[in-house]
Design goal:
By secondary structure, the chain is an alpha+beta fold. Helix content is 18%, strand content 31%.
């Protein structure tokens, strides 16, 4: 992909892009290749969304991560100018984002707050009242060290300490809270997590046909899994870790061997 300086985004989809590259919107590149136009064209309502690895700049879309450029068309018959662009990278360091669901490890208790390791540059805070049905008398049974918490970020920006909650806007847990003591926690790249969280993920569907298991996926690259036996749990862990480097055909062959046994 010849993106040394500037290029149309459509020409680079599926190709490797590098930090510093500038991508122009394919439907409306300027003659001078200096600006990104979002308002012109037949579909004025089309919106361009910048995903991970991209940032808007005066000249266009600035690439901030090394990886493969991806694009998803906007729904409703929008023009090619719309949709979402992002860079699919193998990044492992997590940067907290408001609304992200993550798995945190309780490291300490400070007053009415728990401190959680979420894999970012600093720890996140979690109030004991941020659980469904929690009151001053009815506190959640959180151990000071070692417990796993599945929650979402209520506050996440560079100027404030990340703050997590285990309830949604209606005050319901919606599957969030303390994760069971059993099971296995491991870490993968953020790119694999996004792939596993995609609707109708083929990897998850194929694994569910192999063994019944419980699975919790955190946007911070952490996965908690629990199957019926320790052996089955470890098999699922090994397959999920290997999926990052296997093709779909290689994965199907590996699963076929396991199901045959």
């Amino acid at each position: 992909c010849a993106c040394a300086a500037m290029a149309a985004a459509a020409e680079c989809v599926g190709q490797v892009v590098l930090p510093g590259d500038v991508l122009l919107l394919p439907a409306h590149p300027d003659e001078d290749a200096e600006r990104l136009r979002l308002s012109s064209g037949a579909a004025p309502r089309a919106r361009l969304l910048c995903g991970p690895g991209l940032r808007r700049c005066e000249a266009g879309l600035l690439v901030t991560k090394c990886g493969l450029l991806r694009h998803r068309q906007a729904g409703g018959g929008a023009a090619a100018a719309g949709g979402a662009y992002w860079v699919d990278s193998q990044q492992k360091r997590y940067v907290p984002v408001k609304g992200d669901h993550v798995i945190g490890i309780v490291t300490a208790k400070a007053g009415d707050l728990f401190k959680l390791d979420v894999g970012g540059s600093e720890q996140a805070s979690l109030s004991y009242l941020a659980f469904e049905g929690a009151t001053k008398r009815n506190r959640p049974n959180v151990q000071v060290v070692g417990d796993l918490i599945y929650g979402q970020f209520l506050v996440a920006n560079k100027d404030m300490e990340p703050e997590m909650v285990c309830i949604d806007s209606s005050g319901r847990s919606s599957g969030m809270g303390i994760i069971g003591q059993d099971g296995f926690l491991f870490k993968v790249s953020l790119g694999l997590i996004r792939k596993l969280l995609a609707p109708k993920c083929a990897i998850i569907q194929e694994l569910s046909e192999l063994y019944p298991f419980e699975l919790v996926l955190g946007m911070n690259g952490r996965i908690w899994v629990k199957a019926k036996t320790v052996q089955q749990t470890l098999i699922i862990v090994n397959i999920l870790e290997a999926c990052e480097y296997m093709t779909a055909e290689q994965r199907k062959q590996a699963l076929a061997k396991l199901s045959g046994n």
